[in-house]
Specification:
heterodimer; A: 113 residues; mainly alpha; 3 helices; 80% helix; B: Rna Polymerase Sigma Factor, Chain: A; Arc Repressor Mutant, subunit A; 2 domains; 8 helices; 0% strand
Chain lengths: 113, 192
């Protein structure tokens, strides 16, 4: 029991002595450290933002290119449909009303031609 | 406002700030050893204890307006320190390399703290063993038991003060202290 009390007392003295040997750095030093840490964090955040931005530019360009390609393909498709529609017409558009007056056979013949 | 009056106001406010820092420095000088040794005994790492003590006083300085004087300044500072130690312990659970480095440093702290000239060499070895045994026993305690044990046996605080600092009820403080003492005694006894 006494041995344990002595061990506790020695532990108490050792930790207290360690505390006494360590001096306060002063508030100003702590505030300066905090400021420099904040500045460092801000710099890291700015660097990360720049890296993020730089890595986002190619992706943005790629997406834009893909969108314009899709729009172009759509326009091409529409144009092709129009051309196909023009080619498959049996008579020129101006003559289309005349087809109604022709007998049914003539109209068919005209279509077959 | 006139420029002269503005510059006078700035000078007064700067002087106020300088006085404030000087006043707080006096508080720091008085309570630094207490906060530092509690952090050291809790974390077993001198660098981490230094950083924690700095954070404690920085938080106290920033929150000085919230101090209403209901508790003593020492209780208030120790409350901040206890909370910081708890947060640090939570962070350390995920950082095994910090735990390992702290464990290797703890004996060095104990060895350095005993002045060689004070006692004869044979006795010195015994004392070092005793201190090391209690030191490693506290490292194995659960966080609540450790803080109660350190506040009682290093800081010599009363049970009511420990209850105020830790936010525990006095009965709970007694229970944690009893369990901590039993564990430390068993560990120290095993090492003999």
């Amino acid at each position: 029991m006494n041995g344990f009390r002595e061990a506790l007392a020695r532990f108490h003295d050792a930790v207290r002595q360690e505390g006494e040997q360590n001096e306060s750095p002063g508030l100003q030093a702590i505030l300066d450290r905090e400021r420099s840490v904040k500045g460092l964090r801000l710099r890291w955040a700015a660097a990360a933002a720049v890296v993020l931005l730089l890595s986002a530019i190619p992706a943005y360009k790629n997406a834009q290119q893909r969108q314009s390609e899709a729009e172009q393909a759509k326009a091409d498709g529409l144009l092709l449909e129009k051309v196909n529609a023009g080619l498959s017409r049996s008579v020129p558009r101006a003559m289309a009303p005349l087809l109604g007056w022709a007998p049914a056979n003539a109209a068919k013949q005209g279509e077959n031609r | 406002m006139e420029p002269a009056a503005t510059s006078r106001l700035i000078a007064v406010s700067m002087e106020d700030r300088a006085n404030e820092i000087a006043d707080f420095d006096a508080v720091m000088r008085l309570y630094w050893p207490r906060v530092f040794r509690f952090a050291l005994a809790s974390l077993h790492d001198r660098d981490a204890a230094q950083t924690l003590a700095q954070d404690c006083f920085l938080n106290a300085y920033r929150g000085r307006a919230q101090f209403r004087g209901e508790a003593s300044l020492q209780t208030w500072l120790m409350q901040i320190a206890v909370n910081l130690v708890r947060d640090d312990a939570r962070n350390r659970r995920l950082q095994f390399w910090r735990r390992a480095s702290a464990y290797s440093k703890h004996l060095e702290v104990v060895w350095n703290s005993i002045r060689d000239g004070e006692i004869d060499p044979e006795r010195r070895i015994l004392v070092k063993e005793q201190v090391a045994a209690v030191w490693s026993a506290t490292a194995r305690l659960p966080e609540r038991q450790r803080k109660v044990f350190l506040l009682r046996y290093v800081e010599e605080m009363l049970l009511l003060e420990i209850a105020a600092v830790t936010g525990l009820k006095e009965g709970a403080v007694k229970v944690h202290l009893f369990r901590a003492l039993r564990s430390v005694r068993a560990h120290v006894g095993r090492l003999r």
